[in-house]
Every structure is written in structure tokens, then in C-alpha cells.
Amino acid sequence: MTRIIVKNLPSNISTERLRRHFSSQGTITDVKLLKTKDGNSRKVAFIGYRDDTEAHSAIKYFNKSFMDTSKMIVEIALPFGDESLVKLKKKKVPTATLR
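-> C-alpha cells emitted (99 positions)
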């Protein structure tokens, strides 16, 4: 199974609509639409395909295409724990001391 990441989705998109839309390029195994704690869309989703060929076909077909008025960016999703995903640690700024 290979997952793709879809960025810049319309804010009102549903999981079912994503599944229907992206299934034209292969068999979808799972769809994960990211939302904030408040339930608002983060405009990002992960979509799993049965194999690499279908995932690459979906990337080629959907990348830079539009869903409603949003131009989507579609890429291969990196595996969890990939070194390129390491977040930069915030630098601690020393607080001023009063004398």
C-alpha cells in the first residue's frame, strides 16, 4: 500500500467525496482528512492506494488540478518517522533579568 498526501483542499470537503474523486485512478484503501481540535478542516488529506502504480497514477493525474476553486498539490506521503520530517526545535530566547 502507498499513501499520497493531498494539500490545499476545499475547506468543506468530505471523506466520501475524496474517496469518490480519487478512486478514478485506482483502488483506495483508506482516506484520512485532517481536522483541527475544533473540527475545522486543515485542507490536507492522506489517501491510501493498493499499490505504487495506482498512487503514482493519481499523482500524475491530480497534481495541480482543481477541486472546486482550490488548486490541489498531490505528492507521495513520507513514512511516519522519516528523517526529513524532523521538526526544528524552537530556540529558547533568554528572558531579560531585572536588576
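The chain has a mean pLDDT of 88.
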